[in-house]
Design brief:
The protein has 339 residues and is an alpha/beta fold. The chain has 9 helices and 15 strands. A hairpin with a 3-residue loop joins strand 1 and strand 2. The chain is globular and about 50 Å long.
Length: 339
């Protein structure tokens, strides 16, 4: 009997895991953005001393893992599981970056929703008493993502205004059955939503309906309202998707506009940095959460957050075959107090 399940898609954790540390490493462009003071490390260039962008992304994952453990005063041997993922085929950033960790690993893929997916699964592992300590982390890299999903950088392809800039960065979170919070109290798992959008340069519009669906479902499952939260943050719809999500959610009877923001909007100064519609990629919501949001929770500036990471579940093959873009959004409720 699923005693922890409430409503259609939500789990209320009976033993909420505590976030005991986070770590974030970002690229030079992200380090010039509005959140630069909240990241643990800013690398000098996209290769970071490696021979390829893919190797650099694996290094991002490896070093973020090490930083998160050090800040938690833990060793790799203290971890029961890693839950990690990235945007590259076969999750090679995670697999190659963490292959020497010696920790059992679940590699997951939810496109840009992967951070919330990782945190959801890690939280349920701890709540179910299958683990005491879990590391959740993701990464993305502008150059490796462009190479895989779009065009070689050497072509200098023009990007339309609706396009988003894949974040170069990695964010990690250590969850534990012991600690003084913040706590992950609820998990709302999203379902696939596909509104028929085919424009691969407008991910925000493709993902916004799934974000709305998960947010509204979370409210209906839990009985919470927008007033229950100090911040509702999606990641990463960008400016276009954020506006669409806000309007769609309002049409369902929930006005979140006063407390709503998006990681893709927050990480770049869109005008000064020419980021077009904003940031994207697994590393976008991961670094914003592990940096800015976590630190604001620890300072008590905010106490209750609904973190909703969104993902466009396309591939180069599906796009070339004329398929539309399915999307998904996963939400976790984080509080400084156990509810």
């Amino acid at each position: 009997m699923a005693t922890k399940r409430i409503g259609k898609q939500t789990v209320k954790l009976q033993n909420p895991p505590s976030i005991i540390s986070t770590a974030s490493i970002v690229g030079p462009k992200e380090g010039e953005g509005p959140l630069r003071l909240y990241f643990d490390e800013i690398i000098d260039d996209e290769l970071w001393g490696e021979k390829s962008w893919e190797k650099a992304e694996s290094k991002l994952m490896r070093e973020t893992f090490a930083k998160a453990l050090k800040k938690a005063d833990k060793a790799a041997g203290d971890m029961d599981y890693i839950v990690a993922g990235d945007l590259l085929n076969q999750c090679i950033a995670a697999n190659f970056g963490l292959r020497e960790s010696g920790v059992p690993i679940f590699c997951v893929y939810g496109a840009c929703s992967t951070m919330a997916e990782s945190l959801s699964l890690g939280s349920m592992l701890i709540d179910g008493a299958y683990a005491n300590n879990v590391v959740c982390l993701t990464s993305s890299h502008f150059c490796s993502a462009e190479k895989q999903f779009r065009f070689p950088l050497e072509l200098g392809t023009q990007r339309p205004p609706s396009a988003q800039w894949t974040v170069t960065g990695s964010g990690g979170v250590v969850l534990s059955n012991k600690g003084g919070g913040p706590y992950i109290t609820h998990v709302t798992t999203g379902k696939i939503v596909d509104m028929g959008i085919k424009d691969v340069n407008n991910m925000g519009a493709a993902m916004a309906p799934s974000a709305m669906d998960t947010i509204v479902t979370h409210f209906r499952d839990t009985g919470f309202t927008p007033e229950s939260y100090d911040l509702i943050v999606t990641g990463d719809l960008g400016a276009i998707g954020k506006e669409i999500c806000n309007e769609l959610t309002k049409e369902q009877g929930y006005n979140i506009s006063n407390i709503y923001n998006d990681c893709g909007v927050m990480i770049f100064d869109r005008e000064r940095q020419d980021a077009h519609a904003g940031g994207s990629g697994c590393g976008c919501s991961a670094t914003v959460f592990a940096g800015f949001i976590y630190k604001k929770l620890m300072e008590g500036v905010i106490n209750n957050v609904l973190f909703v990471a969104t993902g466009a579940l396309l591939s180069t093959t599906s796009s070339q075959q004329g398929e539309s873009i399915p999307s998904v959004a996963h939400a976790i409720s984080i509080s400084n107090f156990i509810q």
